[in-house]
Write a structure and sequence with these properties.
The structure is a homotrimer. The first copy, chain A, is mainly α. Chain A has 13 helices and two strands, in the order ααααβααααααααβα. In chain A, α4 runs antiparallel to α13. Chain A is globular and about 55 Å long.
């Protein structure tokens, strides 16, 4: 665990409680909540990692695949409970764009400043390309186009149907990678390198995971209620907060480690974090949120706004074209960052 | 010839005649017509195959490329004659989706249950990817976007122009594969394996082809008139009948043989059936139908509904991304089947 | 320098002056202007080439990258000054389509008539594919979708922001190719072959470049004022003139040399001209024109009409799919030409 995050968590949690009891200004609390969640997310990531190592590759893969975006899931559930459907869709979009363009872009760029060419497993890249195409170009695009003239009820029926299929395919993808085709597409060099030691014991990991999850839930519930005030103060739309802020808060720790891995020339790991996290958001978090929203008065159909959808679609196409050759350099990173900046400006002006 | 199909044909044709003379219920007749056409299509496929072997690879390739979807062509012509332009466009869509997602998906999945990895000729895959992109992403997308504010006359002019270009390019593709570049992109192992014997003699094949074609024409004319009743009875839209039912009936025999080939690890043949059939539908059957429709009062412009077009576009993109590496496994099959299911739900709710 | 172009220039320039003084018919002048500009463009290309050889690969690459489409830039600036924003957007579209489909298509086709398979550097192809995706699918698509409900001011702000990012990334791409990664992705055979002699000395090249630029500017200013009359006479829309005529006039000399290179089996050079020129138009000329338009009363946002945008998007996808394997043949050329014809008919009927 990084010391900075440890301190941030130990200071942030009490401050969050005190601030919400004494009604400190929404803007200040927004900042405190965000920083505390970043720190707690880092704790949860570390605990999941330790558990995954103890549990072995199969169960560990499953743990990573379900808890990897737990923070984002928790924030989104409280946002859904507060009826902020648009913010949730926006933060899903923001996570997809952030992972595919910002995280991968920074990784390629920073890694590329040190190494002329960096390689990653092209089989994984193609496997992921297929899933990205399925998730974004099929499962997100189809409801957008088909629900144009649909009743709200059919819209929801289609969304639920697609969500269930996505979750099944996501589980099938895990089964494929962890069971039937484990190592089939791996390069020899990759198979050996894994002899990590868990940072924490099993019991400590579970305890930390449980406590951090409770704290994140507590803070998330309060965080979503500051959005309106923050949006007004800065002249931002709630959409912009969802797309840029929530997405970054939910993924900050992950982002940092991807860039560090790229700098260490472990481009496979960096790509896995960036694209793997995108797939988890699109194929697991998003459909789970659709199903969870059925419990609340305000349902969430799987229908993004057109700018959100198109931004995700072109990001996926750009990622596939750039990662097709299993080779990265600083310029590919710059291209992804330029695309992210363009979309950032676009969403800001929207 | 499969015995089941032989029996279905010998029972189905007389039943079709008797039923239509005695005005049996439309629902019953719909089922009889569909099953009989499936059986007759299998006869026609077998006869074409025999003729193709006798005629040698060049003329044989041409025969397969023109008669391969004869049944679908015949049904569609009678549907056009009956003024069911939307149903024809829907059944073209259904054939494209069915071949790219259902047939290829089942082939990859079933083959993948037996073999960990299956390979096919990556040159053919890329050649086909180019044609799919041309046919669906250019020739189908352009009229959709350009005709938005066009007069009906210009709409038809554009459709006819595109149709003529598509047919010319389709013939050029045959010339490329059968004459100028025969074997240029083939792997050595593939060249040897073909020493098939025709099932029927030349004369018998031609006779069967002629008789089956007449029977299919007779039944198709009656089939299209049952659509309305069937749609009402089941609460389906005519669109749904076109997309799911007609597409399956027209291609059932073909579908079965693709899956069998995949199970025998002849993935090249399976892919060739699935993608080759798609190309034939998109680049030959569709434009021919546009031109044929000029003879009828109700003309058919090459303008699909937006859901149909987008469904085809994303299917092509998914196929290209998945087949880009010349390697399949059960999970790629599952992905295609999941996409087909999503679209099926979408069209059902539309 | 080709003799024909020399004669055309020496006759065309005086005729252009005389004709405009004596008010010859707009139609006649349109033809004279076009032919003269084609000849002058050839002069400018030759002078840039000579300067580039003298200056060495780095500065030379920069010269080619900025002066390569100088003629188109000059015509467009005068068209912007005359308030013809739609014509400028159309001619940008026309250049992109012309280079990607017509020039590459003719090169592949003509080269393929002589050689069964022609190869080009697949690394360059992929690098270019990434840039094409960024320029067209991200930087052109995003403003289209995001500005739908935007005020004119925000529309322009977004366009200016994107334009600046595009120019920076274009310069970064030059830096990547000419400095940090020069030769990294090149095949050995390519590195040796360049020992060209400049046709003209440095002084002569600069003089010719200066004089030709002035002449092109003089004629362009007059050319754009003939558009309206020509459009009326032939029943063409100004859009069609922009897309087909201006694009061909601005690039004719370049087009010819690409096809000649393909015929000499130098497919690398042919592809570089076609795709390199497209990238220059999309990532340098287009954003520079957006910024230049700020000086004129009529501003140009980076928002194409939907048919223009979709035509460019599908052309890029087709190019990427076809060039993905680093291998061309006559049929791939025919496919590109067929796509160009379809779009030509579409824009004519629009």
């Amino acid at each position: 665990m990084n010391k900075v995050f440890t301190w941030m968590a130990w200071i942030g949690v009490p401050l969050s409680v005190i601030g919400s009891v004494f009604h400190w200004s929404a803007l200040l609390m927004f900042v405190i909540y965000c920083l505390t969640i970043i720190a707690l997310a880092s704790y949860m990531g570390c605990a999941t990692e330790s558990l995954a190592i103890v549990a072995g590759p199969r169960v560990g893969g499953l743990l990573n695949a379900t808890f990897g975006n737990a923070v984002e899931l928790i924030i989104s559930i409280f946002a859904l409970k507060a009826g902020l459907v648009e913010v949730v869709l926006a933060s899903l979009t923001g996570s997809v764009l952030g992972n595919l363009l910002l995280v991968a872009g920074l990784s390629f760029f920073v890694g590329g400043l040190k190494y002329k060419r960096q390689e990653f497993n092209v089989y994984d890249a193609r496997h992921n390309a297929g899933l990205l195409t399925f998730a974004i170009l099929v499962a997100f695009v189809i409801p957008e186009v088909f629900t144009m003239d649909m009743s709200d009820q059919d819209k929801l029926a289609l969304s639920v149907g697609i969500s269930i299929i996505m979750i099944i395919l996501y589980l099938a993808a895990l089964y494929f990678r962890l069971v039937t085709h484990r190592g089939v597409y791996q390069q020899k060099s990759e198979i050996i390198e894994k002899h990590e030691k868990p940072e924490w014991t099993k019991g400590k990991s579970i305890l930390i995971l449980a406590l951090a999850t409770i704290a994140v839930a507590y803070i998330s519930e309060r965080l979503v209620h500051t959005f309106e005030t923050v949006a007004e103060s800065f002249g931002w739309s709630e959409l912009f907060i969802g797309i840029i802020i929530v997405a970054i808060v939910g993924n900050a720790a992950e982002h940092a480690s991807a860039v560090i891995m790229a700098y260490k020339n472990k481009m496979n790991v960096a790509v896995e974090i960036a694209v793997g996290s995108t797939l988890q958001i699109a194929m697991f978090v998003a459909p789970v949120l659709v199903l969870v929203s059925l419990l609340f008065p305000e349902k969430m159909p799987l229908v993004f706004s057109l700018p959100e959808l198109i931004a995700m679609v072109v990001s996926v196409l750009l990622t596939i074209v750039l990662s097709n050759d299993g080779d990265t350099n600083w310029f590919e990173g710059a291209t992804l960052l330029a695309a992210y900046t363009i979309m950032g400006i676009g969403f800001y002006l929207l």
